[in-house]
TrEMBL record:
Its EC number is 3.2.1.39. This is glucan endo-1,3-beta-D-glucosidase. It is a lipid-anchor; GPI-anchor. It holds the Pfam family X8. The keyword Lipoprotein applies. Residues 368-453 form the X8 domain. It comes from Arabidopsis thaliana x Arabidopsis arenosa.
Length: 506
């Protein structure tokens, strides 16, 4: 029994750590509200040609599920809103559905998520609080009965309308009218380690308020930032601001461990005359290319820098049967004849990416530091310091009593060390040294005595091996190398543990 426990524990730790090593993933939504679309088998070939590894569909069509069989593509399937009533009322209905509509294709078809309902709070025909969570629970129960509840995650997709406030991001709050639905749903997600799935469209924010929102800001092309006055964080694109608003809304309800997955985002290539937004192929290519690079390089958001996120681009094809304005029918990456509407590189390595291959920061200097501004007020410094040591995830041990950077025991000195730590951990960008104006970049090393200020490149006057390792790990290549080494060490350790347990058993 003890040996069995050790084995199970070792495998659990291995899987947990390996899961932490994965970076952000980019998928695509495969909607079928259109005429003259290719057959599902041809669609799968198209997806494979473009190296797309993650796909979301909105139902459980048998021909589509069969077409994805014997591929390595991970599939997210959906329970349509029209099925929610039946799924919420009867466990036997769901058991039968799973047996007849899903299991015949699994695991040949690699189904990893089931979405129960889509943007149900926006559907006037659906009582979200009555149907969605009970249906989710019944789907989970059905999966548990066949031993698949840990392999296939259950969630539901929502729109940004679930928030009553989204700006500034730190004031993000859920709409109180959805309280009866939200809390049980969030409890379900937290208990089962399922993601909070959201459909995000900065395009609509720009379309509806073009005089207040800049096009560059929503396209990830802005050279200026929008500041969150409560945190001092600077936002260079609307997508990050919307994601962080959701994180803050979750935190306000004490759901800090739930991860966010963006199950739809994109940009239309055509709009009607009534739409003032720039719906065009050029803007669609710019937005989608930038969101892909943002995800695959694990940039994270200002509130959660470096955190991996999964994002699905909407949509694979234009869907001419959709109602509404012209933009509703023109989000596709491909025409029905499978030619590209515009070029999109799902690896995030296209030439449009302004990579910083020289290893220097945005100021052009290979060594720069961030310290507290002498012009900053005590209130601003304290607020920024508290934020950095809390939500900013900076290790502030060094400024504690008896530690190397405690003396001089002043707010400016402590804030300077912490500001620099946050700055270097986030690739030494200008944004990471803002702190609402309380931070300032310098080119002279502020290190003193045993208090060492790190640099992003790992090059510093008094560098230690441990600090150099931390700095190199802040780059994508450093992360990949460390992740690979960690995986290898864990697998070797598990192998020898198993060998030892087998020897003891004999």
């Amino acid at each position: 029994m003890a040996r069995d426990f050790k084995l199970i524990f070792s495998i659990s730790i291995l899987l947990l750590l390996l899961d932490c090593c994965y970076g952000g993933k980019v998928g695509v939504c495969y909607g079928r509200s259109a005429d003259d679309l290719p057959t599902p088998s041809k669609v799968v070939q198209l997806i494979q040609q473009h190296n797309i590894k993650y796909v979301r569909i909105y139902d459980y069509n048998s021909q589509v599920l069969k077409a994805f069989g014997n591929t390595s593509i991970e599939l997210m399937i959906g329970v349509p809103n029209s099925d929610l009533n039946a799924f919420s009322q009867s466990q036997s209905n769901v058991d039968t559905w799973l047996k007849n509509s899903v299991l015949p294709f699994y695991p040949t078809t690699k189904i990893t998520y089931i979405t129960v309902g889509a943007e149900s709070t926006d559907d006037p025909h659906i009582n979200a609080s009555s149907f969605v969570v009970p249906a989710m629970q019944n789907v989970l129960t059905a999966l548990r009965k066949v031993g698949l509840s840990r392999r296939i995650k259950v969630s539901t997709t929502l729109s940004l309308g679930i928030l009553s406030r989204s700006f500034p991001p730190s004031a993000g709050a859920f709409n109180s009218s959805y309280a009866y639905f939200l809390r049980p749903m969030l409890e379900f997600l937290a208990e089962n380690k399922s993601p909070f799935m959201i459909d995000l469209y900065p395009y609509y924010a720009y379309r509806d308020s073009p005089n207040n929102v800049s096009l560059d800001y929503v396209l990830f092309e802005s050279s200026s930032e929008v500041i969150d006055p409560n945190t001092g964080l600077l936002y260079k694109n609307m997508f990050d601001a919307q994601v962080d608003a959701l994180y803050y809304a979750l935190t306000a309800l004490n759901f800090r461990t739930i991860k966010i997955m963006v199950t739809e985002t994109g940009w239309p290539t055509k709009g009607s005359p009534k739409e003032k937004a720039d719906a065009s192929s050029d803007n669609a290519e710019t937005y989608n290319s930038n969101i892909i690079r943002h995800v695959v390089t694990n940039q994270g958001t200002p509130a959660k820098p470096g955190e991996a996120m999964n994002v699905y681009i909407f949509s694979l094809f234009n869907e001419n049967r959709k109602a509404g304005l012209d933009s509703e029918r023109n989000w596709g990456l491909f025409y029905p004849d499978q030619t590209s509407v515009y070029q999109l590189d799902f690896t995030g390595k296209s030439n449009g990416f302004h990579s910083n291959s020289s290893g220097t920061n945005s100021s052009g200097s290979s060594n720069s530091w961030c310290i507290a501004s002498s012009k900053a007020s005590e209130r601003d410094l304290k607020g920024a310091l508290d934020w950095a040591c809390g939500p900013g995830n900076v290790d502030c041990t060094a400024i504690q009593p008896s530690q190397p950077c405690f003396q001089p025991d002043t707010l400016v000195s402590h804030a300077s060390f912490v500001f620099n730590s946050y700055f270097q951990q986030n690739r030494a960008t200008d944004v990471a040294c803002s702190f609402g104006g309380a931070g300032v970049k310098v080119n002279k090393d502020p290190s003193y005595d045993k208090c060492i200020y790190i640099t992003a490149g790992g090059n510093k006057t008094k560098a230690t091996n441990a600090t150099a390792l931390t700095s190199s790990a802040s780059t994508p290549r450093g992360n990949e190398l460390l992740q690979w080494i960690l995986k290898l060490c864990l697998m070797i350790s598990l192998f020898f543990s198993l060998q030892t347990m087998n020897s003891q058993a004999l």
